[in-house]
Amino acid sequence: MGKLDDIVSLCKRRGFIFQGSEVYGGMAGTWDFGPLGVMLKRNLMNEWWNFWVDQRDDMYGVDAAIIMNPRTWQASGHVDTFADPLVECKECHGRFRADKLVDGATESITTEEFLAADVKCPTCGKKNWSEIKKFNMMFTTHVGPVADDSSIAYLRPETAQGIFTNFKNVVDTVYPNIPFGIAQQGKAFRNEISPRDFVLRDRECSQMEIEYFVKPDAWEESFEKLRSGQHEFLEGIMGLPKEMIHELEVPEEDRAHYSKRTIDFMFDYPNGEEELMGLAYRTNFDLGNIQRESGKSMEYRDKVTGETFVPHVIEPSIGVERLFLAVMSASYVEEDDRVVLKLPENLAPYKYCVSPLLKNKPELVEKAREVYDLLKKKYTFVTWDDSGNIGKRYKKQDEIGTPKCVVVDFESLEDDAVTVRDRDTTEQVRVKIEEL
Ligand code: GAP
After folding, report:
1. Phi and psi at residue 401, in whole multiples of 5°?
2. pTM value?
3. Is 278 in the pocket of ligand 1 (CB under 6 A)?
4. How many Å apart are CA 298 and CA 309, to the nearest integer?
5. What per-residue confidence (pLDDT) applies to 369?
6. 195, 231, 255, 305: which has the fewest Cβ within 10 Å?
7. pLDDT reported for residue 153
8. Alpha helices (H) in 198-357, listed in sequence order
9. Mean pLDDT computed over 328-357
10. CA angle, 276 as apex, 270 and 280 as ends, to 5°?
11. Ligand 1, from 205, 261, 276, 279: best to mutate by most atoms within 8 Å of Cβ?
């Protein structure tokens, strides 16, 4: 694994991720995906959807609006409790998350506990602190032409509520058997006090979430199945090494306001262990709140027993950017004189790169174009590279994680075979074009 700076630099150099609004000096906590980044990001998201939704009979998808009726966030508890402890240095006016400045502190840290830790301001080194204030992390906006209290709306801080508010619509249109899940991928926004560690903590991120609805007394069984499913997905499909993933049973005082049990899946990122994703038992907290706030029944009628109840919920939730960084960190290798991104083949932006050995020999270029067209039809994600010398092309393809480089040389004109170079071993073998 490389250092975080090496990965940031590779991401910029090769067009994976750029600083958001870079041309205007940037916008903290926002990131733009470039041509290669979009390809990798879409592969992650498509694989997730394929694994969790398409391959199963008990999952359904939704794609809800980002701006929701503000009553959503009153009912969900986000208006009152979605807040981080903010502390301000009275000398330099730097603002920080108090719990991040004290070793082992939780989000419920008090001013007394913070002052007792005798922390120095990370910016100016002084120790003159304000009281801790709770800072709500939801971004507000105004809907319509008048900006007053009655037009306030929020950018959703989690995609989950778009699922809960559509629970009845889904039940009444596809009649699912319980247990069943509703999945969603999309943007979420959090006004983080201190965005940090590249894309790990952003103000705008993408989440992939499932709300899995179960009978109240059957939540543990589904929790365990979804728990082992996370390992299958992270290790088997994303190729993350088992030993870099650690489960953390979150103690009650650190759990979100809606959770009765949470396991965080931690990952060994370049800057240390951090949360990659969470698995939470949200009980019937959300559907119960919606029922109260809207006055509409959120009950499910069991098709076999006729029994009615408000389902309980297990929620696996993962941030796309955190998954992206985990995959990048696990794949990044520095070897002798090269940097290689050893991405699993299903995630690599391009599966093949095709080149003529020399770009000024029309017969080689023509043959290489034929090979390119053939592979493009078969594998879609194929790139063409005739820049620089062959060594430089390999270097570039190694850095963007292309598993195979195909080179057309003079012999190819005679034997209809090409040289195929393997990204990970650098071994080169001769392969008949028809066998590619
Ligand atoms: N619906 C539950 C929920 O939103 P969360 O633990 O606050 O729970 C779930 O967020 C996941 O979303 C996290 O595990 C992480 O992968 C991702 N995430 C949360 N905040 C993020 C941020 N500021 N930047 C990047 N990813 C974030």
Report:
1. 85, 25
2. 0.95
3. yes
4. 8
5. 97
6. 305
7. 96
8. 219-231, 285-294, 320-331
9. 96
10. 160
11. 205
